[in-house]
Amino acid sequence: MRCGTMRVAAARVLAPLVATALLAAAPARAQDNPKDPFEGFNRTMFAVNEGLDVVIKPVARTYDAVMPLPAEAVGGKFFNNILDVRNLLNNTLQCKFADAASDIGRMLINSTIGIFGLFDVASEIGLERHDEDFGQTLAVWGYRDSAFLFWPLIGPSTVRDTGGWIVDAYTDPTWWTINKTPATRNSLVALPYVDIRASLLPADKVVGEAALDKYAYIRDGFLQRRVNLIYDGRPPRLDDE
């Protein structure tokens, strides 16, 4: 099957399935932002997430305080090496074969010379990291417009990206390489989220001071970043769209 045909066929099958998620959620204040038809639901989930963050934020602060900066940086590189599996799969599905070949090179180099990804040797020799996920793949296949959603723990997303997140979760090697030791597996799955939350600690003050409406600030920033990722840093002008 040709790559373009594969995109169309997959989009026809997957996009309607993802698009039907949460149809029961009542639209609220959709006229304020057409990309956020579930705003009432989303703001409720945002409030729930803020409540959960009362517990998670101290854990992230402890992690940030206990982990030496070099060890924290090395840990982030280790998790990025695991994510290169996801990047490889999605670059292949998007027919970005040059980037997929680069991802293979990154994994081979960082998993060997870089000691299982603890050191990002590949970037030092010019193999840049690509941030690709299945939500972006669905967008490349044609499912570009999607309603915003906010989930506790997961954070900002869209209907499309929620479906993509579920698919990406099954491509995480952590799930299928340590499936016989659930406690170890669950700890390794949770640790990247703690690492990410710790990396966002400096942004908390900026968001708190800059945003009159924290929810809207995070939503708009997320949607802009997703457009930038989908178009690989070269989004079209608004009048072009």
Summary?
This protein is mostly helical and 241 residues long. It is built from 11 helices and 2 strands.
Summary keywords:
mainly alpha; 11 helices; 241 residues
Give your account of this protein's structure.
The structure is a single chain. The protein is mainly alpha-helical and 241 residues long. It has one domain. It has 11 helices and 2 strands; from the N terminus they run ααααααββααααα. It has helices at 3-19, 39-66, 69-93, 97-112, 121-124, 134-140, 159-169, 173-177, 182-199, 201-210, 214-230, and strands at 148-151, 155-158. It has a two-stranded antiparallel ribbon with strand order 1-2. The radius of gyration is 19 Å and the shape is globular. The two termini are 29 Å apart. Residues 18-31 have low confidence and may be disordered.
Q: How is the biggest beta sheet arranged?
A: 2 strands, antiparallel
Low-confidence stretches: 18-31
Question: With helices defined by DSSP (H or I, 4 residues minimum), what is the helix count?
Answer: 11
Radius of gyration: 19 Å
Helical residue percent band? 55-70%
Strand fraction band? Answer: under 5%
Give the terminus-to-terminus CA distance: 29 Å
The SSE string, one letter per element, is HHHHHHEEHHHHH
Overall average pLDDT: 79
Shape: globular
The chain-level structural class is mainly alpha
Number of domains: 1
Strand segment count: 2
Going across the biggest sheet, name each strand in turn.
1-2
Topology, please?
Blueprint: H1 3-19, H2 39-66, H3 69-93, H4 97-112, H5 121-124, H6 134-140, E1 148-151, E2 155-158, H7 159-169, H8 173-177, H9 182-199, H10 201-210, H11 214-230
Antiparallel strand pairs: 1-2
